[in-house]
Write a structure and sequence with these properties.
Blueprint: H1 7-18, E1 27-34, E2 52-63, E3 80-83, E4 87-95, E5 99-108, E6 113-115, E7 131-143, E8 149-170, E9 173-196, E10 202-216, E11 231-247, E12 250-259, E13 270-280
Parallel strand pairs: 1-3
Antiparallel strand pairs: 1-8, 2-4, 2-13, 3-6, 4-5, 5-7, 7-8, 8-9, 9-10, 10-11, 11-12, 12-13
Length: 281
């Protein structure tokens, strides 16, 4: 469902179109707020059969930008506010020996986002109330003949509402005109290899995967381009590692991962950290 605030902006666009767009006197920029890169809720240590787990997470706890994006944008760059920290929680059940199923949610306040370039404006407080991801997940796990190692395939499907704000430059100033929102479904597929210590006090694991996200192409559009919503899908590739420590029934987890930085005008990977605390019963 789309929600658009700013009827005056629509009237303004109509006037520009009728004028023929021969000599644009205004520029239009669109800025989208998007979730930060994340890893699945059920990455990490495997659950015991017929148990359930409550988990709190900072995922990412902190996402670092590539070093060379602290610059002004260039033609063709996206205009994004990206969450650098997200808080979340999940509830999962272990169904039998090999399957875990459940749900998860993540949220970032407006203040927890940062721009992809210096000239990307902030969202007004009344334009967006942060960005969230909510969905369901499943993990299939298989123990090797050497019982210290597990292989897992992890799938998540998350729903997000992505806002995109519109700004019009008039007399040298960028004026906020309105905001559109659309729902997006973000899939994530990860593979993980675990080493579970013989006494099961700690679990070391590595993972790699692909997840859906979005960018936008409306940051450098001029007034002759009339699209009202320019968000489009992209894929993020993620690789990382973590450590879980078991303190029955609680466990602590942390680690780091890199992604391919498709959000930024850079080919350098960006680094993120995560932290979790869980209770298994």
């Amino acid at each position: 469902m789309r929600i658009f605030k700013g009827t005056s902006y629509a009237i303004f666009i109509a006037i520009i179109m009728l004028s023929g767009c021969e000599t644009p006197q205004y520029n239009i920029r669109r800025v989208a707020m998007v979730p930060g890169p994340y890893i699945p809720a059920r990455s990490g240590r495997v659950m015991e059969p017929e148990s359930y787990m409550l988990q709190l997470e900072a995922n990412p706890l902190l996402a670092l930008r590539p070093e060379n994006v602290f610059v002004y944008s260039e033609i063709g760059d996206a205009g994004l506010q990206i969450a650098y920290s997200q808080l979340g929680g999940s509830f999962y059940l272990s169904s039998g020996e090999n399957v875990e199923i459940g749900m998860q949610t993540r949220y970032a306040f407006n203040e927890w986002t940062e721009p992809t370039a210096w000239d990307v404006p902030d969202f007004p407080e009344d334009a967006a109330n942060g960005v969230s991801l909510t969905g369901v997940g499943m993990r299939y796990k298989n123990k090797f003949e050497d019982e210290d190692f597990y292989f897992s395939a992890i799938l998540e499907m998350n729903l997000a509402v992505i806002p995109e704000a519109t700004y019009v430059k008039s007399n040298g100033y960028w004026e906020y005109q309105g905001c559109e929102r659309e729902q997006w479904l973000f899939p994530a597929l990860f593979f993980q290899l675990d080493y579970l210590a013989p006494q099961e006090y700690f679990d070391i694991y590595g993972f790699l995967g692909i997840e859906g996200s979005v960018t936008n192409e409306g940051f450098d559009l001029d007034s002759c381009i009339t699209e009202e919503y320019t968000v489009e899908p992209i894929a993020l590739y993620i690789m990382g590692a973590g450590l879980d420590i078991k303190l029955n029934p609680m466990y602590l987890a942390g680690g780091a991962y890199v992604n391919n930085s498709e959000h930024y005008p850079s080919s350098q990977p960006s680094l993120s950290f995560f932290a979790r605390v869980g209770f298994e019963f």
